[in-house]
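ARCHIVE CARD
Drawer: 12
Card no.: 0347
Subject: one protein chain, sequence and derived structure
Cross-reference: see card 0346
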Amino acid sequence: MNNNITMLLNADELIKLALREDISSEDVSTNAVMPDYQKGTVDLICKQDGVICGLYVFKRVFELLDDTAEVELYFKDGDKVKNKELVGRVTGDIRALLSGERTALNYLQRMSGIATYTNEVAQLFEGSKTKLLDTRKTTPNMRIFEKYAVKVGGGHNHRYNLSDGVLLKDNHIGAAGSVANAVKAAKDYAPFVRKIEVEVETLEMVKEAVEAGADIIMLDNMSIDMMKEAIAIIDGRAETECSGNVTKENVARLTNIGVDYISSGALTHSAPILDLSLKNLHAI
């Protein structure tokens, strides 16, 4: 199931958890100034250039608080937005507009920030065979939203969670005793349709992973020269991925060495938010 559909199926439950975090009993400030129903409207304004993402989640926050809320959106996820542009308008119970503002913006700013950062990195991959991947380094209870944002920004998703694929990292190999033991154990346990990926740090481990029959070999924190040598050793017998402190600032040096995938935790753990704001709230 793709992340877009999965997000839609899971969004309401997660949004409600976020709202409960922000409104544990009541919104004291709003109830003080607006004790009764009053219809109103507020504008969603972009405050910097970027890629918008998370509009459905933004919209659902207000719909869950007020089933009469109407959200007009003038862009769709993946569109480029510019500073001072009007992105949308929310109309409904002013109490819902006030109480939902921070939660709705938290989602939209975070997801748009990831999509923007990913888009900037993905542009460096143009003309290359290499695919840009995210990781599991995501905010707890935000993974489905953050991985969706990576795709909107032009990246690709690595495994979604621990149930989604076999990735034997250094500690798995340590537990098994060797690369060969870890791969054999995975082949014996996992369904045959699962690919087996192995993280390696030395050329000796590369050779062992190839001989053990790994499907994907992750070259972790290797120098450029060592990665090139590793790719020559693998010689097409497994797919290749490189990882380790990959950021927008240093990824360009990796795009032409011949790996199939480059994974970057920075896409989700280090992307700054895209600044957006709800302004001009007034009764109608």
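Annotation on reverse: Residues 3-121+272-283 form a domain with the Aldehyde Oxidoreductase; domain 3 fold (CATH 3.90.1170.20). The CA atoms of residues 109 and 265 lie 19 Å apart.
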